[in-house]
Every structure is written in C-alpha cells, then in structure tokens.
Amino acid sequence: MLSIETKFIATPGKGEVSALLMRPKDATHLVVVGHGASTNMRHATLAAIAEALADEKIATFRYNFPYSENGRGRDSADVCVETVRSASRAARETAPDLVLLAGGYSFGGRMTSTAQSQEPLDDVKGLVFFSFPLHLAGRLDTKRAEHLEQIDIPMLFLSGTRDELAVLELLEPVVAKLGKHATLHKIDTANHSYKVLKKMRTSQEDVFAEMARVLRSWVTENRI
Question: Which CATH architecture has domain 2-221?
Fold first, then answer.
C-alpha cells in the first residue's frame, strides 16, 4: 500500500489544503473523496471507506476543504466547489494512470455533484455518493437534488435504509428520475453515519466492505 500526504492549492484566496493518497498495489481506479460538513479528511468514516476500497484495488484521494484545514467557519459553496475542482486536478496529477472518480461522504458528495452539474470535472468518469444528504433532518424536501439532473455521467448512491438525511420515500424517486445515469444501493439498517442495527440486519457483511464490493461491481457493469 502506498500512502502519501500532500498539499494543493484549494483556491487562490484560501491557499493550500492537505490531502492523503492511499493507493493499493494493482489499483485500477482512484476516487476523490470529500469529507462531511463538520469533519475532515482524517475522520473515521473516511478512513474506513478508504481502507475498504483499497481491498478492492481502488485508490482514494482524501482532502480537506479550507475551513476544515484552518479550523474556521464553513466556506461559501463557491469556495467548496472550487476546492472540489482543485482536488480532482491534484488527484489526476498524483495518479495519472488510474480511472478517475469523484464524490465524497455527505457534504463532500453534494459539493462534488454541484461542481459537476455546473461544469464537468476534468477527466472524471463517474460520481460516488456516500450518504448523499438529500435534505436536513426532519425537513423532507428534494431541493438539494435538483442539480443532479444536469449530470450526464454515471452516479452511484450508497445510502442507508435508516438515513435520516435521505429518507427512502424521497431518495428512491429522485434516483429513478435520473434514469440510466444513476444507481442506488441501499445499505440495510444503516443510518447516515453507516451505523447499523446488528440484530435486525440480514447480512453479516461489514458495511464498508459491502460498499466497496458494490463500487467495484458498479465500475465493471458500467465499463468505467
């Protein structure tokens, strides 16, 4: 396993942010992974995602948004979107031989889809959303999904059946409306943080191993 810490310019005004490349031997794909709204690239959820993907020969490029790098209030959406673009370019430069995917956990995934909807990310072949935050807790609407209709590359949604920020009654129609570009994989009994109800869960497979396996199958089926 190759693990490299690096930095790149997020935006001219915000300066450098940190990034972490995890590249397993014989990797075929590289996923650019943005973090959740109140965390950073070293959060346990992102680490678990990266480790599980490595087992499937999928590399990851985790990065910080400027506000998490500097311990300040959250940046504007424009700054976060520009950071996504910068991260994708930095990831491509770090591993130019791998097929590039982009996405993230919760907020990081939403900023990535926003960026892609405004202008395609350079050389990105597909988007992966770990717990896409469709709505705020208890505020059931789909406004955050409207921009997804502007995206014309494959999208994979990895969402728990108990996700309080993406209730299935709303998420399933949203994904269905996106047609052939979108795939929804439901993680049995998982919530937004991928915590499961072990006694009720029908599968014994680790949640993160399941998502990595599904991602590997998805890139194969879609010939990405």
Answer: 3-Layer(aba) Sandwich (3.40)
